[in-house]
Write a structure and sequence with these properties.
The structure holds three protein chains of three kinds.
Chain A: H1 2-12, H2 16-49, H3 55-65, H4 70-81, H5 96-132, H6 137-147, H7 149-165, H8 168-174, H9 184-193, H10 197-229
Chain B: H1 5-17, E1 29-35, H2 36-40, H3 43-55, E2 58-64, H4 66-74, E3 80-83, H5 86-94, E4 98-114, H6 126-136, E5 140-142, H7 148-159, H8 164-167, E6 172-174, H9 179-189, E7 192-196, H10 197-202, E8 209-213, E9 220-228, H11 238-249, H12 251-259, E10 261-262, E11 265-266, E12 269-270
Parallel strand pairs in B: 1-2, 1-3, 5-6, 5-7
Antiparallel strand pairs in B: 3-9, 4-7, 4-8, 4-9, 4-12, 10-11
Helix pairs in contact in B: 11-12
Chain C: E1 10-19, E2 22-32, E3 38-41, H1 48-56, E4 63-68, E5 79-82, H2 93-103, H3 108-121, H4 137-150, E6 155-159, H5 167-182, E7 186-191, H6 194-200, E8 203-208, E9 211-217, H7 218-223, H8 228-235
Classes of the chains: A mainly alpha, B alpha/beta, C alpha/beta.
Chain lengths: 230, 277, 240
């Protein structure tokens, strides 16, 4: 009882260790979202705007990969980064960098697939106007991505939600090292395995609250700036 | 005035990458592949700050089953292995992956079961108890994850004269997970489970579970530590890793292990001999 | 480069456009040269919009040949188009014009001045910093005109730009179009508003069912149509 009580104290008082875990979770997942956006958005826009043989296969593949199992991605990245793997010499397995890489791989398909759909719809509206202005392919991609920015925020949030919620990939490539690679989700998994269910649930609620707050903030930003930009 | 998307993204990148300093040349840390029992029992939480104070080396613990921990080390992804399955450890060293194995400490296994004790094993020796469980087909949860505890469990079935691979029925549940989940599962299905005492003592979600069999010397559980072979993996931080191994088997480290208690109970009993094998 | 390449004369040679089995444009051969505004007139579905899209190079003919200044490459050089419902980019009015200038190859350091001049020319100078999508229908149409003029076109194609505007907005659009025509830009505009034809046209191309039925100076067409279809259209009868 006293242990559980102190666990709750830890959550309520914003304990330093808990703060570090929250901070790492956010740092890893937000970095992964940013990286995945830098890769996935242009990729999605490119697929939306180009026609080539096998394109529909790629579209189906992208959509299907939105459901990539995190453990599989984690295992693949683990094998890649392991000392015995091709990128082993980088020595980044069991570090936050490895976790960012795994989550980036995990959410690129989500951001790319949602971007493709958004950009393809917008392109139908913009096609004549941009063609008449003789806009280059790269210019079209940039214009459509920018003009779809409010809708694309949803793609980013979907990616963030996926990254923040997954445990399989970060557990495998991060190793759940106390104070170094322990995130909210791996901490929940650990506390559950220790039978410390109330603390696990408490951590889970903190995670949900944070994800909720970020979504609310993003939504507020969207509504506000959409009002500004029309 | 407009929503500056690009600056939003770069701001995100900056804030999130700040503070994630990459491992530098000055990085005084090692990765130790160990078992869930050492972590879940809280032993590392107690030992590592003491070692850090002494040697100024950070120890990053990856807690896995013994088999998985040895695999991690076999891939060169750890500097030190600290596990409890002697025969697997000796093979690991014989195959050239480890330098030298040292006994560190032991704890013991306990057979956990529901208070209702459907197989009637309470207070029996482990051999009789396992036979009774098999005969009555009482629910039994096996780690099934190649861990040290799993190895020990399989060895005990052999001791009891039960060919578990041939006779297991639906009563025998292999969950392929760590000690904690195995206890959670046993609690949920009113089953028996073999657990290390350390994890059991610090386990919070006991419900109707209690110790059914303990004290049998066949339940003895030896822990060994070894440095991963730097000749095989040049990335191994051999000085720091060896420092950790040496400290564990030193008088000071052994005393620290003996001093770790939960609710007044000692969990691990140091027995290092220093000569190694 | 811009000075040496021309999009005029714009020539259609035996051009047909089919959509499946339906004939949208039927064997059109015509030439558009500099001069007074040409208004393309005809009932809905007569192919006015499709013709404008072909003239702009947005659609390729099923048969026949379109050429601009002798070139068949459809890349727009010195032509621009105003759609019935132009797409406003999600940015300010000024940024919309600046975007068109950038695409037309205007050097970066000249854009700010040109934006101001163009917005002044369409009467939107005071609304420069207003998000384009917050403008009224008439203002959006004028902003689209500014974007089109940013391309410094020789020929400006317009697809019923005033169809959904009130009379005041229509008048300001027409004033800008007339100003453009006076500055030497060839205007080709689709309309089914005979009053507008009377106010703007130098000549009329009258289309029925995808074919060019009659082409004549505006006054002649309005007062003495030579085909029964044109006469019926001018009377206000339904021409199918």
């Amino acid at each position: 009882m006293s242990v559980e009580f102190s666990a709750w104290q830890l959550i309520l008082n914003g304990d330093a260790a808990l703060f570090a875990i929250v901070r790492l979770s956010l740092a890893v997942s937000l970095s992964a979202v940013a990286l995945a956006a830098l890769i996935g958005m242009p990729l999605g826009a490119l697929v939306a705007l180009t026609r080539f043989p096998g394109r529909s296969v790629l579209v189906v593949l992208l959509n299907a990969m939105m459901g990539l199992p995190p453990v599989v991605v984690g295992l693949a990245v683990y094998l890649l980064l392991s000392r015995s793997g091709p990128l082993g010499s980088m020595g980044i397995l069991f570090t936050p960098t490895a976790m960012i890489i795994a989550q980036t791989v995990l959410i690129i398909p989500i951001i790319a697939a949602l971007t493709r759909q958004t950009i393809e719809d917008l392109w139908a509206e913009y096609r004549d106007e941009l063609t008449a202005m003789d806009v280059s392919q790269a210019g079209r991609m940039a214009t459509l991505l920018w003009d779809a920015r409010f809708s694309l925020l949803t793609a980013l949030l979907a990616g963030f939600g996926r990254a923040a919620a997954e445990v399989g990939a970060v557990m495998i490539v991060g190793g759940n090292i106390d104070g170094f690679t322990r995130t909210m989700t791996t901490a929940v998994a650990l506390e559950t395995s220790k039978g410390n269910l109330p603390l696990a649930m408490g951590l889970g609620l903190v995670l949900v609250a944070i994800v909720l707050a970020i979504n609310a903030a993003a939504w507020g930003t969207r509504v506000w700036s959409e009002r500004q930009a029309g | 005035m407009a929503f500056r998307f690009s600056s939003f993204v770069s701001a995100l990148l900056l804030t999130s990458l700040a503070g994630l300093a990459p491992a530098s040349a000055q990085d005084r840390s090692i990765v130790v592949a160990s078992t869930t029992s050492t972590q879940d029992s809280g032993l590392f939480g107690y030992l590592l700050p003491l070692f850090k104070a002494k040697a100024n080396i950070d120890v990053k613990v990856i807690a896995q089953g013994t088999g998985q921990a040895l695999d991690t080390a076999r891939r060169g992804d750890a500097d030190v292995v600290f596990v409890h399955a002697k025969s697997q450890e000796e093979k690991f060293v014989a195959d050239g992956f480890g330098v030298k194995r040292f006994d560190v400490m032991y704890n013991d296994f306990v057979l956990i079961g529901p208070k209702s004790d459907p197989a009637g094993v309470k207070g029996k020796d482990i051999e009789t108890a396992l036979k009774a469980i098999q005969t009555k087909a009482a629910p039994f949860v096996s780690r099934g994850d190649k861990s040290g505890t799993h190895s020990a469990e399989l060895a005990l079935w052999k001791v009891a004269g039960v060919d578990i691979a041939a006779t297991k029925g639906p009563w025998y549940r292999e969950i392929g997970q760590g000690m904690g989940p195995a206890l959670n599962t046993a609690g949920a299905m009113n089953g028996y489970v073999l657990a290390d005492r350390g994890t059991w003592i610090s386990f919070k979600n006991r419900g109707e579970l209690e110790i059914a069999v303990e004290g049998d010397k066949r339940l003895f559980n030896q822990y060994g530590v070894m440095l991963v072979n730097p000749e095989k993996f040049p990335s191994v931080k051999k000085e720091f890793g060896q420092a950790f191994v040496d400290w564990l088997i030193s008088t000071e480290g052994q005393a620290a292990i003996a001093a770790y208690k939960i609710d007044g109970q000692q969990l691990f009993f140091p027995n290092a001999e220093k000569k190694g094998s | 480069m811009r000075a040496t390449v021309s999009d005029l004369p714009l020539v259609l040679d035996g051009v047909s456009l089919l959509a499946g089995a339906t004939t949208i444009l039927d064997r059109l051969s015509l030439s558009i040269t500099p001069g007074a505004p040409t208004l393309i007139v005809g009932p809905n579905g007569s192919g006015k919009t499709s013709l404008l899209r072909l003239l702009m190079g947005l659609a390729a003919p099923t048969a026949g040949r379109v050429s601009w200044g002798g070139r068949t490459e459809s890349k727009p050089v010195r032509r621009a188009i105003l759609f019935q419902r132009p797409v406003m980019l999600r940015r300010t009015a000024a940024a919309n014009v600046a975007y068109a200038l950038a695409q037309a190859g205007t050097p970066r350091n000249e854009r700010a001045v040109r934006v101001a001049v163009l917005l002044e020319r369409v009467g939107l100078f005071d609304l420069a910093q207003r998000p384009a999508r917050k403008l009224s229908g008439g203002e959006q149409q004028r902003l689209a005109l500014a974007r089109a003029l940013a391309r410094e076109p020789e020929i400006l194609l317009l697809d019923e730009p005033t169809a959904s505007l009130d009379p005041a907005a229509t008048r300001s659009v027409e004033e800008i179009v007339l100003m453009a025509a006076q500055s030497g830009i060839k205007i080709v505009m689709a309309s089914h508003d005979l009053g507008q034809v009377r106010r703007l046209a130098g000549e009329v191309m009258f289309m029925v069912r995808g074919a060019l039925c009659e082409r004549a100076p505006a006054a002649a067409f309005l007062d003495h149509p030579t085909t029964p279809e044109a006469a019926a259209f001018l009377r206000g009868d339904l021409v199918i």
